[in-house]
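For the sake of transparency, this paper describes our internal protein records without simplification. The tokens are whole numbers drawn from a learned vocabulary of local backbone shapes. One such record is reproduced below, unchanged from the form in which we store it.

. . .
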Amino acid sequence: MTTQVCAAPSGDFDGAVGAAVQPARWSGVFAMTLCVFALIASEFMPVSLLTPMAADLGVSEGWAGQGIAISGAFAVLTSLSIAALSGRVDRKILLLGLTALMCLSGAVIALAPNYAVYMAGRALIGVVVGGFWSLSAATAMRLVPAQHVPRALAIFNGGNALATVVAAPLGSYLGAVVGWRGAFWGLVPVAVVAFIWQWVSLPPMPAGLQRAGGSGGAVVRLLRCRVIVVGMLAVGCFFMGQFVLFTYLRPFLETVTQVGGFTVSFILLVIGVAGFVGTALVGMALARGFYTTLFMAPALMALIAIALVSLGDQLTAVTALLGVWGLVATAAPVGWWTWVARSMPDDAETGGGLMVAVVQLAIGLGSTVGGLLFDHGGYQITFFVSAFLLLLAALLVLLTWRAGMAEGDAVSDGGRETGCTRVSKLTSYGVQNRGDSKT
């Protein structure tokens, strides 16, 4: 899975001026949604093609999986530095440049004669991931009036969810039909269409309206707050634990469950469809119990990781377990983005950039650790380490909840000053301004 944008920050500043009277540019929203689809598909395509890619490039599955790790590393670097660039460059030009880089990445990977070139192509997609997600929420606020921002962000998430449904199984199927290089080539025309559509539909979005909250000093200030630090650690452990296992799912299915290409595609489709359903339902779960939902997600995934070790040779059980995994894993980031908006209402964009960096770093570390474990210790130790990290994430969720109550949660304080951030009386888009202690 990837970083989702599901709640716009309150106190937004990029395009807030005149937001109520600006025209709604829905064509631009849908153009960016197509870009989201191509981006998510590009980022995680190696998961469904790991075995043939490793064989063709002459490396192990573990080394091939490092393509996700390097894209995560470059996404971290980009997300931490994009604010300085976006403050000087028209956002339309920046987004078009990132989309063009995605086209180039797909071509480089598809043509890669060796492992080094393949990794270079993966580094390029990492730059796109970090840059695009760091800019996406504020861009939505420049495209539509304030009252339509939640709908625009929901459409963005629709592209994300659609990619999780079709990208992995389609990649596996195309890999069997036209080879893994053909599967990557198939993403290039989609990215080209997204580039043209954005060129036509996005308005000029000049720099110069950004406030100081996006500076590196604001990140340091946020990290002085205990609830933010513990929450980000929880996010990191969640994504690291997830990708220790998920990156090496295909070789597990082929060697332990002993299924072929068609069945692998079907199981990946089950995961994607379940994730789409989870994304649609998670809002109700968060409304009933916010931190309870954040806690239950990693705890349940840890149990699934352990169960897969015991039931890995039983196709029906594996399919059912991975369906529940997809339901939970795809929906959980919605809760964490809502947490950013609730906990940092005046610094949500800075907090969002920090979240992108933490998530991508965790994905990279998870893929790296998972590859080393899978190559040298087998799937059992890999899945047990995944379970440990996910249980640690669940524990950190409880500590985040406790720290938030102790320091004065931005939501439950009802608009007064806290030790972490000044609390606005405004609520974030789509997030109720009410305490979580009742959940």
Notes: The first helix runs from residue 26 to 57. Confidence is low (pLDDT under 50) at residues 3-20, 209-215, 410-419, 421-439. Residues 145 and 320 are 42 Å apart (CA to CA).
